[in-house]
């Protein structure tokens, strides 16, 4: 508790206005209570949507580079608070401190990206078939963006969405995971600091309620998804949740950006640099205790190096430091909660029943945290991709399979319902190119000689099939947060019709 109050003091953050008895935040580190908070009601969420709509109507006419200034200041405030905020991410989500701070760095990176973008938001000029005519496209703000995020990246995913949505001229309503509400409120408090600094420079420009947080469970997400005043819902989480959100949003013909499950594979070929591959496998499979949507879950190793690779992973797994996420040297922190531990054990049982040979996976005692769930990462030798291998279990379980020829390995990589991330370790340029080609990996992310997790914000992030098809962060993902208008302008003195149609009156 003392640790928590020191962090709150450093962040200048006080959640007493939100105290209540609906959401109980506990640290996965030791099971200790962080805070008990009041959830918003459906009526309050509806009011928030109306307020956001009013904010949007003012914000959309502020020039985009000026909107960028707010995001620039937000990035500045985040830089000033990188360590305490990173520590709070660690305490509430359980990821190790270096990853907690890394997550805040990811927020800063997307703010920088969005500031640059605020002077771009380019449209095209298009050749017209008619003389004295010009065509162009213009990108306009979209409206209120609903952002639903998960516990495993409790703040960065909001930032990917909010930084872009804000420079694009939108208002944002954030529904964080009910497992990580405190760090969401802390981020909102930092946003308020940015607002205060911006308003000092430019009074009266910034509407109130431009960014809001609504706390609660599924009914809050459902209220956002159903509202015709929310043209875009960006949702990160399970396939089950995404299916519900997508259905509700589709019913009203709204737009959704979905970032759902991953079941990410890696192929290790005979020419692979094994020392790099082993580090990449370890970071991707056991980092964040296997709780990233990009975590490595399936490994396909060529039979000529299979025994060597698997034995080496086994040795690493036996020695990798599982422990307090705040301790330097810890690589594997706790699972988020008991439910997640039980889901892992059930998956391992099923894997055994389906012929898997399991090493690791057992609970590890850390400190006196009876209510904390630490595990040794599990390695499961499988002879085929049975039912359980097709399933994403949010825990450090790595299924290892042997392959004989390259095409089979690519087929195995693609044989699951999810399509987020994938990787190959090879020094054979033909294999590398084939893996990235049209007949290669079917995932949104296809990496060569790096792991499946830890993407930078400059690229578009997301995946295919049950992953949901959305793209966030870099490249041209910003277009999802805007509406496109095609403009045709006639500067001639006649009125020719397209396709040569004659219509003289
Ligand atoms: C997630 O797990 O929801 O590529 C996002 C990565 C991170 C983002 C993961 N940059 O692993």
UniProtKB/TrEMBL annotation:
Pfam families according to UniProt: Aldedh
Residues annotated as transmembrane: none
SUPFAM superfamilies the record matches: ALDH-like (SSF53720)
Family to which the UniProt record says this protein belongs: Belongs to the aldehyde dehydrogenase family.
Name of the protein in question: Aldehyde dehydrogenase family protein
Record's keyword terms, sorted: NAD, Oxidoreductase
InterPro entries, A to Z: Ald_DH/histidinol_DH (IPR016161), Ald_DH_C (IPR016163), Ald_DH_N (IPR016162), Aldehyde_DH_dom (IPR015590), ALDH7A1-like (IPR044638)
Species of origin: Collimonas arenae
Keyword set includes Oxidoreductase: yes
Ranges of residues in domain Aldehyde dehydrogenase: 21-484
Description of how the protein assembles with itself and partners: Homotetramer.
Annotated GO MF terms: aldehyde dehydrogenase (NAD+) activity
